[in-house]
Amino acid sequence: MSAPSLLFRSPVSSASSSPFGAMSAERQDLFFSLALTALPRPMINPLCQIVIARLERRVPGLKQRLQPLDGKKLFVQPEELDVGFLLSFRNGHPELNALAVGSPVKVDAKLAASLDTFFDLLHGKSDGDALFFSRDLKVDGDMAVVVALRNAMDGLGEDLLSDIFSPPAPFNHLLNRVSSVANRCVDRVVAPFLQKTARLESDIGSMRAEIDQLRRHQYQKAQPPFSKVEVVSSVEKNNRTSPKVDQKPIELLAPAGTPAALRSAIDAGANAVYLGFRDETNARNYPGLNFSRDDLKEGLAYAHERGRRVHVAINTYAAAGNMQPWYKAIDTAAELGVDALIMADIGLLSYASKRYPDLSRHLSVQAGASTPAAIQFYYEMFGINRMVLPRMFTLDEIAILKEKVPIEIETFIFGSLSPMSEGRCALSAYATGRSPNLCGVCSPAEHVRYENREGVLVSQLGDFVINRFEEGEAAGYPTLCKGRYIPEGGDACYLFEKPECLNAAEYIASLRAAGVTSFKIEGRQRSRFYTTEVVSCFRALLDAEAAGEAIETLPDVLERLHKLAEGGEETRGAYRKGWR
Ligand code: SF4
User: Fold this and answer.
1) In this protein, which residues make up the domain named SCP2 (predicted)?
2) CA 428 – ligand 1 centroid, Å
């Protein structure tokens, strides 16, 4: 058994002159790594019980959060250890037990990754989906269990997790003593070295700033890289060479799958967030995700205290004969004082416009309105204030459309893509009986299974094999539109869409010039880490663009975005498409 790599991990904050004192999360990881590596299995179990007892004591509403996991069992395998952890759920109570690897236990799903990866996930420092796409996190079995667990954990928030995973008091005391001795040693022996390093870092920082400055000058002088571009719109041409300043700020609109994600998005610089209730009234109805009435009330207070807005998606189509859940969602959102409703169903638009005429109504992408006449109709009939554009328009088409409609335009800037048949796709319903249009979920996790077959990851949706990923190949979620199929006489290929991620960062200036008011980030189903990363990256890009700088001057930011892409690949989507 090899020692966990975590023991040799470098501290997060290298700037501190007392590295041990400033790394509580690292210290927790260190403690648990040591304990898991050195202790015999029977002694690990009491630690597990302490963690679970704390979780139950300190998390309000835990029972409700864990409800989708009732009766499920999951095996978590840190790859460096010869023990794994059986996590099971009964009546809203979790149980955690250490087991030898290979123990004959029937489980619903298995997770395997390095100990380092699991600690990063627990501390909200990495995105589970991105780790899964890159195959650093291996998943086997029932995806609904994994998704429900991810969402429940993600909703806890970083402070709480640090609290729950802090070492038990006697060990904590011991660690504090060790830390204090270590700090004294560091001060005497290492401090002079750290000071020298700090000076060098400062010199390197100045050099980097000069290099960035030179890059900016070079970029502004250089021809724009049109050679890479198959189709370049007139809007794009007009805006690539002359970045503008002093323009109206564009709204950065972030996904909030959980209350913790809402707070993270706002702290990272989002102007507004969008979210849904915990039911089929919104198009991301996944287990463990979304907001209760109380969650929304608290989220609104957090956002409004900071001058940010909250939009509520009630964007599925109401069930015939059972409109009540949708009406109730509208009433609750209005009563709590949300800033806008996002809707597609004309019955719901009519209800909201008559009952709450002063509450902003945004037409969801799910409505699939794709012509000025269609949008004008919604404006005249239901007084919509904003249109969320389907992801099918070029930059020029957006500019033309904006000239013809008297309302705000919101476009997607980053996130997962589908073949642009918003609100009309029945593929998921065909395979599973549930679709995003009526039930709020495409390819529901309870119909998804992953199996590792000798290094090949096979993904299934219901009875259909959707994809096979060779070892090392980036993986994706099995939606039917992103499956690989074998056409007659051909080889397996993506017939509709590849699993890839829209990244329209390079069109920020062009979209602004086309009259776009709001940039929407897709991904309420993704982790809190994803939300924080994408929001802070786009905050940096928007600020740079507003200051007249080209986004190419922020290569680190573009690289961070790339790491979060579904399937590990990015696309510019329809913004510069040459087909219709
Ligand atoms: S199958 Fe694809 S196109 Fe259809 S709803 Fe799901 S993601 Fe969208």
Assistant:
1) 54-154
2) 7
